[in-house]
Design brief:
3 helices, 3 strands, alpha+beta, about 60 residues, globular
Length: about 60
């Protein structure tokens, strides 16, 4: 099994340069990097967030 670093919402917001509320909004509309719940906490695989960001760069 490969180890993947998990980010919390603060880390995702910092990396993307957006407020946490923006990420919450994205989740309700299905936009943004795919996150998941660990108990009551939201988490993202760092690689997923980075890959999503790179995909945005390829759309332009």
């Amino acid at each position: 099994m490969e180890f993947q670093e998990l980010w919390d919402i603060d880390q995702v917001a910092t990396y993307l340069g957006v407020p946490k509320q923006t990420i919450y909004g994205w989740r309700t509309t299905g936009y943004g990097p795919r996150g998941f719940r660990v108990g009551k906490h939201l988490r993202w695989h760092a690689a997923t967030v980075i890959q999503w960001t790179l995909g945005l760069a390829n759309e332009t």
